[in-house]
Amino acid sequence: MEYGLQLYSMRDIAKDDLQGALRQAAQMGYQTIEFAGFFGHPAQEVKAWLDAYGLKAVGTHTPLDALDNDFDGVVNYHHAIGCPLLTVPFARAETQAECEAVAAKLTTYEKKLAQENITLAYHNHSFEFKTSLWEILTEQTTLPLEVDTYWVYAAGADPIHWMETLHAQNRLPAIHIKDGLADGSGKPLGLGTAPVSAVYRTATKLQVPMLVESETLTPSGPEEARICIEYLKKLEGM
User: Fold this and answer.
1) For the chain, is the Cβ count within 10 Å smaller at the N or the C terminus?
2) In the chain, how many domains are there?
């Protein structure tokens, strides 16, 4: 199996030593990387590190305001590191009008990025299910969605349903495989109550890329990332 890591999981070291974070991820057995910032490093340097450690950049978490402020720069950076997916990790929207405005803006950027051979997706937390944003995105747009399976679960919804539904619509470029408690407290894989094994089996069946994200830095980002990949390797044999 091929596993990816959302580098936010190792933000405690990545912010000061991005190269070291990539090296450790590769040594643990991760093969793909989703970035959560580049911390001032030029694209050519990041690409050289990826190549040196046998890693592929499969995605980034890029805020909407980065696209607003420097669209061409964001596009050029993605091209330089060979990254085909740009995921907006969060967009604040509470009222119906705000949700509709976010959906419209995402759709505009989806079309612009498609012209650059970059897929735009949106990553959910739980709040989208408490507003109309998730409903608008799923029913009124064709936007790809990177399903964070833990936050779907924490919102009281069924991550398996949404994985299967969006995959059938060709709108599921990747998932976050993640664990935690129903109250919103994150945990490393295998230590929470989210349906991780069912998510794993579904992602394997659908052949959807799995990206580990674990947020608690317990006892450290690298150690948490190690716990997660070791748990996934145990699932392979079950």
Assistant:
1) C
2) 1
